[in-house]
Amino acid sequence: MIQSLTVRTMNKFGFAIKTPRSENMDQVSLERYNKLLDRVPSFKRCFQCGCCSATCSARQFTEFSIRRIHTSFRRGEYNGLDEELKKCMLCGKCTLVCPRGVNLRSLIINMRQILDETK
Amino acid sequence: MKIHAYPYNDFVIPFLIGTVLLFSIIIYKYIRWIRRFSDEQRKVIRSNWYSWKIFPAIWEMIREGLLHVRILKKNLLLGIMHQAYALGWFLLIVVGAVESRDAFFTMQHEQNIENVYELENQNGWYIYTTGTDKNPQYLNQRRYRVETEDGIARIHYHRPFYVGIFYRYFVHKAPASFRQHKAYSDLMDGLLIYVFLGLTMAIIKIFWSKILGMRRTTKHTLVDRFAKFSLWMIFPMRLLAESVTACLYGNGGFFTQAVGDLFDPMIVRGLETSVWMLYSLMLGVFFVTMPFTRYMHIFTELLLIYFRKIGVKEETGRTGYTYFELNACSRCGVCISGCPMDKVLENHEIQSVYLVRSLRNQERGSRLKMIADNCLMCDRCVVDCPVGIDLSALRRQTRDKGAIDTTGNYKYLDNKRTPFNAIGRVAYFGGCMSHLTPGITESMERIFTAAGQKYWYMDKLSTICCGRPLQQQGFMNQAAELRQKNTELIEKSGATMLVTSCPICYQSFKKEYNLNIPVVHHTEYIDMLIKQGRIKVRHDDCKVSYHDPCELGRGCGIYDEPRSVLSAVTNLQKTRYQREKSVCCGFNLGNTRLSIEEQTKIRNASLENLTSKPVDAIVTACPMCKKAFQHATHDYPVRDIAEVVAKNLIN
């Protein structure tokens, strides 16, 4: 019961259990990800705790998870990311709560710029 | 027949070329920029350019262009240095012109053959005749007598505009009845010494800028240094030229005559025109370099003051006004001394002076981007700038994101509806950051309740960002969209006043929105409640230091209200850097390039200032600053003003 409650609560913060799938990381081009790491070195520290998504202002209105976005970016799945990133209001709460000191605002701007440059 | 006396010598040519080039380039540039004014700015200029607003404009042009009151107030020595240059040189030109006018007026009225003879002996005068006489154009006779109808020779003395500049050369001996001659030459010498005072201070500044109150000065380009050198050489050359002439003819004032008496007339006799040529050359070189160097500010600043005073404002994009702002920067480097990025992080590249220079030199690419992005936008340079350039606006323009600044991003916000009718209530906007510091919003709710004020906490459950963080990063369209959403929300609610807890939102609502209700920050609001007696507070015996948040203090000029609130409830300690000089907490949303380590360094510097005297708590008025300090220190509790007041509420 507790487990199902946790799952239900966590669902709200982008922690929903996804359908299993496999991905061959050897075949993914990480060019854009490496570019992102060059520009935002602090992203290397991210341990995907999800605090950014939990505090997000935009998340209170719509389905938007910054954690899911940067995880996808890390994996080289860029489909629809630019549309998704536009929802961000850049308010900076995520940057302030990040326990690892990742500069998330810079990360978001740079993800958008890299996606735009390599469209 | 008429005799004409015309002062001319070949050495005036460099000066003339310089002057013509200077003014033609400057006028060409000004016309180009004026044509690039936006429609909005044109409208303002068209309706105001000849209204009563020109009186304050002219007053400020005199006050800032000549007297330099603003620099004098900020930094006395620097002010004296610049005033000596600007006012001193200006007076040298004006007094020189008046002196030559007076002297020529006397010569015109008291003329005799002896006077002509005097002129004829000097190289600097061309004497020629016009009329029916068939004499050669230049009269070379040593003595001559011109017969006219009444038997008196009338000479027409021409006075070209450069005579004032080279007066001592052209009037070796003033007419006997020109009695003010000595007084004028002493006055001119006094002014020259005044300019030399500025020159000496400028040379001291190069080697030891701290004496003049500048921690660090601008690193100039080669062209700027060359122009500076030619400017510096003008005045020693003038002294040299005038003293040589004084040595030969004894027409100097107390200073030039004293210097001239040191020379041997036999040696300097042949050098006279050469030293005057050097003086003229220095003027010419300086004039030609002026439009392409930092000295462009001399005339541009006056026009900038005029446009600003009649109501022209910087816009989100680049307009003609931007060009005036860019060129009005004198690269004095005052913005460097206060910059926390320079002081704490030793970053000497990104200061506003370098941003403006890069923009003016039309640089592009990653360096400019780095300069533009790597700034806290704490506005310290904006309040420090002696020219009053809107440096933050320039930076925002440079950060413009272009293609990725899209529209229609926030359709999902349409779901947010006004939950109830808020007519007659005060709307309270906590802001995104206040949701991370619930102490502030809870205290504000307690204060509202204590004051018996019905309020509508408009973002209790979900916040629409005010748009300023986007605006700061150059997402102009996206920011406008958010502003529109918030404006709709507030206007639909029918609230009578908007209280915000976050200075970032406050500045946005106050300056970027066009709301039809008053917008106040909670410090102003609490101050009002205390003064009206709507809340009763007790005075505790804590000692606190107050941190002026950038956006509230320098951004909106709210310095007194928080202090008045704090003195009502507790004992406020002064700190070394306060009010305009307050050090940013380092976590300002303006910067996206700084790493957390660098931000922490700035924060520690700010914290050090707040805790230099023993205090019981640190108080601030911004959730962002509060969060920043809270992370840093366990020795001092960090509180918001609202929390301090809520703790001391009686009713």
Question: What report would you give on this structure?
Answer:
- The complex is a heterodimer of chains A (119) and B (651).
- With 119 residues, chain A is an all-alpha fold.
- Chain A is built from 7 helices and no strands.
- Chain A has a single domain (29-117), classed as Alpha-helical ferredoxin (Fumarate Reductase Iron-sulfur Protein, Chain B, domain 2, Orthogonal Bundle), CATH 1.10.1060.
- Chain A has helices at residues 2-11, 31-39, 51-55, 66-75, 81-85, 93-97, 104-117.
- In chain A, helix 2 (31-39) packs across helix 7 (104-117).
- With 651 residues, chain B is of the alpha/beta class.
- Chain B has 4 domains: 2-134 and 176-294, no CATH class; 295-404, Fumarate Reductase Iron-sulfur Protein, Chain B, domain 2 (Orthogonal Bundle), CATH 1.10.1060; 411-528, 3-Layer(aba) Sandwich (Rossmann fold), CATH 3.40.50; 537-647, Rossmann fold, CATH 3.40.50.
- Helix content of chain B is 53%, strand content 7%.
- In chain B, the strands form 3 sheets. Chain B has a 4-stranded parallel beta sheet. A 4-stranded parallel beta sheet of chain B has the order 9-8-10-11, with helices on both faces.
- In chain B, helix 21 links the parallel strand 4 and strand 5 (455-457).
- In chain B, helix 5 (76-109) packs antiparallel against helix 8 and helix 8 packs antiparallel against helix 9 (222-249).
- The longest helix of chain B is centred in the N-terminal third of the chain and has 34 residues, at 76-109.
- Chain B is elongated.
- Chain B starts with a strand and ends with a helix.
- The model of chain B is unreliable at 133-145 (pLDDT under 50).
- The chains are: A mainly alpha (119), B alpha/beta (651).
- Chains A and B meet through helix 6 and helix 7 of A and loops of B.
In short:
Chain A is mainly alpha-helical. Chain A is built from 7 helices and no strands.
- What count of domains describes the coordinates of chain B? 4
The total count of helices of chain A amounts to 7
The span between the termini of chain B is: 100 Å
Broad shape of chain B: elongated
Structural class label of chain A: mainly alpha
CATH topology of chain A: Fumarate Reductase Iron-sulfur Protein, Chain B, domain 2
Low-confidence stretches of chain A: none
Percent in helix of chain B: 40-55%
Classify the secondary structure makeup of chain B into a structural class: alpha/beta
Strand order of the largest sheet of chain B: 5-4-6-7
Rg over C-alpha atoms of chain A, rounded to the nearest angstrom:
15 Å
> How far from one another are the termini of chain A?
46 Å
Residue fraction in strands of chain A: under 5%
- CATH homologous superfamily heading of chain A: Alpha-helical ferredoxin
